Amino acid sequence: MRLDLEGMIPATVLPMTVDAGIDEAGLRRYIRHVARARPKALAINVDTGEGPHLWQKERLRVLDLVLAEVGDRIPVIAGLGAQFTAQAVDLACEIKEVGAAGLLVFPIGAYHGLPLDPELPVRYHAAIGDATGLPLVLFQLQPALGGVNFDAQTLDRMCRVAQVVAIKEASFDRKRFVEVRDAVKAARPECIYLTGNDNFIYESFVLGAQGALIGFGAVAIQQQVDLVTHALAGRHDQARRIMDRLTPLVDAIFAPPVRNYRARAKAALVMQGIIDRETVRPPLLPISDAERERIRVALVAAGELEEKGGEAKALA
Fold this sequence. Notes:
Layout: E1 8-10, H1 24-35, E2 42-44, H2 56-70, E3 76-80, H3 85-98, E4 102-105, H4 119-132, E5 136-141, H5 152-159, E6 164-170, H6 174-187, E7 192-195, H7 201-206, E8 211-214, H8 221-232, H9 236-253, H10 261-271, H11 289-301, E9 305-308, E10 311-314
Helix pairs in contact: 1-2, 2-3, 3-4, 5-6, 8-9, 9-11, 10-11
């Protein structure tokens, strides 16, 4: 059955206990909140959910908990990060066993350094696809977050791997976004083009995106589902109005340094009463009071938080 990814796919946060363990009850509650917005799929154990900072047994437990909440109503795409091919294959097979519908394959350290021989990422993805049979989502991630920008030849070869069904483009660069779109569609027209660019979500659809797999989807999820639905239907005035309202919140969450966006997203959700704590797993750091205040102001401006008598109240 075809995995339909043409729509909004939030990369979810992972609620944590005071000592940075998995808050299982909090995770279930948060996933129910996200699921009510009816996203096209969920991205679990990716950067936003601190997947790279979890033990594999924890990632599998998170998947178990999420799948227990959504069942077969919403497909779950699991993040796959590894250091070498055999490890990636083993991890991917474990993820498949739990019940993930597909894999978002993270770039690995071996890609770093130029020039990158296309054979390296092609063989890596092919091995994962051959071993699992799961749909694969390629991932072009900005170097500031540990990723790699692939050239056109490499993208062409990667898109032709049998199990590849989509690519998440997250360079945060509009020019590169268009260049990658052209390379992907020339290589494999049916490959779904997903924006991972939280800084220009609406504009991505004007430029050819077919869906959005983004960390900003962890917050303000209903508005973003509405935005993407409008954009895909060609209702650009409605989509643009939502984006204008959300832009100050995007800017607050993804301010430099970008790595702090996980803690900022959790802070926003705490202010709304959706999760209990801002806790992130070390070496990630908590945010400052000044950052927290910027987020609060942006939540109010976005219509996600209401101020009454000097106090903020989450909006339903």
